[in-house]
Amino acid sequence: MPKEEEDEGNNDDNNNQVEEECNNDEEEHNYDEEKRNNDEKERNNDEEQCNNEEEEIHQIVEALDAYEDLVDIIHNSQFEPTHMVKNIQRFQSWRKRLPLLPIIIKSIKISPKKTPSTSRGSKLSYQLSISEIIWRFLNNPMLMKHMYFGPGINSEEKSEFWHGNLWGKSPLFGQHEILISEVLYRSGDFVYYHDDNGQKKLGRLRSILKNHDGYYQLRIQKILEYSDLPRNLKGLPRQRCSITGEVWLQDERFLIIMTSQILEKVTILMMFQHQNIPDGSLRISEIIYKCNDRWHVRNVKLSYLHPSDYISIRNPPSSSMPIYKLFLDLYYDDFGTFRNVYHSLGGVYVQFGNMPAHQRKLIKNHFVIGFIPFGGKFDEFMIPFISEMKELEKGKVMTVQGQDAWIIAGLGVVTADLPQGNDMTGVLRHNANKGCRTCKTTKESLSAHNQDIVTTLRYHHITDEEILKISHETIMSRRDQLCTEYGLRSLPSILDKLKRERHLQTPQDVYHATAGKIGRLLKLTCELFSREGEDIFIEIWKNFEIPKRWSRLPNPITHYNSCLLYTSRCV
């Protein structure tokens, strides 16, 4: 055989051998891939079977809970067998006579920016009357037995709204006046009192409280004369001012004294609240406070007004008429109505802060005001609510438990997430340079640990002045500049028509402020897992102890977005 033919034959054998090896490798790869797919399918089947078992257990638990509720109803002393409906016809006839709440129907405009071009320009909105909700609430004996309508309570553990500062100092919620030695004192009055050493001191009556033993206590803010000032703040200019009646408000922890320590009333004027101050009268133009362990001075205008400065309530028509003051907690949040299409409704709810915390957290004690249609505006929807609340702030006669009573209700707290909360305080969204609804700190300074925070806080009366400047500006570009400078929206919230301190009574949404960072950390952590690590993580995840009424937790690896959405709703 020629040499060329022999070489060609060897090359063909080598090529066939290489091709055969490639085919074998491909078969092995396909076999391995098929095996992995089968393993994954088995794992998914096991997980699905486990989930089905958990769902069955959850349904059984729900059925047992419903049975326990039925047993409780039957064994209730007020239950009578004649109350049971025996047929559907009787049930339908009874349903027509149910004492349902009247519904307020109002047409509101729909923004074309959020809805399809084929949508109508307005929609009907439906909401319940807050006055009707309050009336039914007060006439429900099962709810009234849990309610608290007294003065603020001086407690070390702050677990209820009546343990807080707002309840104690606001005339809308707590006790705002007290008779001491036949003299009527009101919260917000300036007084002389004896301190624990028996010395005569100046102070402001911040709130009238009771302790757990039922004795009255008074919360006092110190007012200092020149001789009491810290050494680094003394000087000839302040000494001369003190001769003409200048005193200084101290922004430190308030004192708690007994009613027997009160001596008499005194008139002291705040400089920024009065234009003409008589010569020789006591006045306050500065506040002393501590920052970074050093005493400082700021203008008295940089302080929160006492509620008595902007709230006055009417007395009931009869002195014998019982008085009920209601602390309303307003909730507002958007929620999606469809899974795959962005179409949100704005839910507006109220809770009564007069209930203890363990009662407020129950779903049955959340009262729906209404739902804002997709594309509608909160301010327009809330017009009927605001109109009723302005009447309730002044006081209104209602029949409660068979007798006339004087009802006062005020907006205590507004609860909302980051964007809606800023809207309801008239502040720009949280991604703006000054997007905090509590202070004017810029983005670059948010992490500064030694800043003088009280000088950057937002105060209601100062915000009012800034909003007035914005509204008077006719040039649009200049108006936008002022909005950016102050960190405010061009139009205030409709809630500003009620008596409240917008920045104090709209607390920060802690969960939404941190949930984004936690979610990102969870996602990065899950991406670092190997296949074995994922299996171990999921096994541990399934063993987390959760309340029996919760549904099962979604898989945080395969259903990351659903997991975050579920946990946010649970929180």
Automatic annotation (TrEMBL):
Q: List compositional bias (Basic and acidic residues) regions by residue number.
A: 32-46
Q: What positions belong to coiled-coil segments?
A: none
Q: Which domain of life is it from?
A: Eukaryota
Q: For bias kind Acidic residues, which ranges apply?
A: 1-11, 18-31
Which residue intervals make up region (Disordered)?
A: 1-54
BAH domain sequence ranges: 183-306
Please list the GO terms describing molecular function: chromatin binding
The protein in question is named BAH domain-containing protein
- Supply the source organism for this entry: Rhizophagus irregularis (strain DAOM 181602 / DAOM 197198 / MUCL 43194)
